[in-house]
UniProtKB/TrEMBL annotation:
The ABC transporter domain, residue ranges: 4-231
GO function terms (MF aspect): ATP binding
Coiled coil feature spans: none
Transmembrane found in the keyword field: no
Keyword annotations of the record: ATP-binding, Nucleotide-binding, Transport
Record's protein name: Metal ABC transporter ATP-binding protein
Gene source species: Caminibacter mediatlanticus TB-2
SMART domains per record: AAA (SM00382)
InterPro entries on file: AAA+_ATPase, ABC_transporter-like_ATP-bd, ABC_transporter-like_CS, Metal_Ion_Import_ABC, P-loop_NTPase
Length: 240
């Protein structure tokens, strides 16, 4: 069974069509990067995959079901810059939200162990008592990834995970995403993601241009260079 199946997907907010005839599939544990210009429809596509928006036409299946029916296996990482820093909440509490999001108000010993293990795996165990507002952008992003992983998802969807983070933090976040042994959908402005072990690249600008692995070699891939991506990369040759 495919992790994601999108067939003939169309979407519009008001009159203007935002996404037109989008088709793609993603297998279990694959990694897709969704790139494209501002306003091209990347976040809208992510919201459709998450079940936050309904297609105008077409079909989306996440592990064989509608996104809403399978929301318990979808981890979502919003942009860390949207985090409300006025709430004096600790790292542990934020990550624990991932265990409590199924109508459960109290955590048990097992939940605590799961959260501890994730904090350890992500190298942020020492931050567990720190307030979110006192963390760097990169640390905050790791906490949001940890929260998404706490639901034990089969698939994780991330919106601009490296935005507003310094270069060292960006590398750490990309390393972390690469190391995850689950299906990954990452919307990004950051073309460095193209140099990572992605299985597919979707360039979204109303329509989608899909590039598939097995191993991507963007600079040498003439076909991909010739399409709109070259404008996006803002270079004359398709080097990154
Ligand atoms: N809630 C909304 N109502 C109406 N139009 C919207 C809404 N959200 C987004 N749009 C419009 O839909 C288009 C696609 O927006 P979207 O946020 O999906 O693009 P994006 O590729 O994620 O852009 P960016 O890279 O700037 O985040 C844009 O023209 C945007 O103005």
């Amino acid at each position: 069974m495919n992790a994601i199946e999108v067939k003939n997907l169309f979407f519009k907010y008001e009159k203007e069509i935002i996404l037109k005839n989008i088709n793609f599939t993603l297998k279990d544990k694959e990694f897709i990067a969704i790139i494209g210009p501002n306003g091209g429809g990347k976040s809208t596509l992510l919201k459709l995959l998450l079940g936050f928006l309904k297609p105008l036409k077409g079909e989306i299946k996440i592990y064989g079901k509608n996104p809403k029916e399978n929301s318990h296996i979808i981890g979502y990482v919003p942009q860390h810059t949207n985090f409300n820093l006025d709430i004096p909440i600790t790292v542990f509490d934020v990550v624990m939200q991932g265990r409590l999001s199924k109508g459960k108000f109290f955590y048990n010993k097992e939940d605590k162990e799961i959260v501890k293990e994730i904090l350890n795996n992500l190298g942020i165990y020492d931050l567990k008592k720190r307030k979110i507002k006192d963390l760097s952008g990169g640390q905050r992003q790791k906490v949001l990834i940890a929260r998404a992983l706490a639901i034990k998802p089969k698939i994780i969807m991330m919106d601009e995970p490296t935005s507003a983070i310094d270069i060292k933090g960006q590398k750490e976040i990309l390393d972390l995403i690469e190391s995850l042994d689950i299906t990954r959908v990452v919307v990004s402005h950051d073309i460095k993601i193209l140099l990572r072990e992605v299985d597919k690249i979707a360039y979204v600008n109303k329509k989608m241009i899909l590039h598939e692995g097995p191993k991507l070699n963007i600079p040498k891939d003439k076909h991909f260079c010739e399409v709109e991506l070259i404008d996006f990369l803002k270079v004359n040759e398709c080097g990154i």
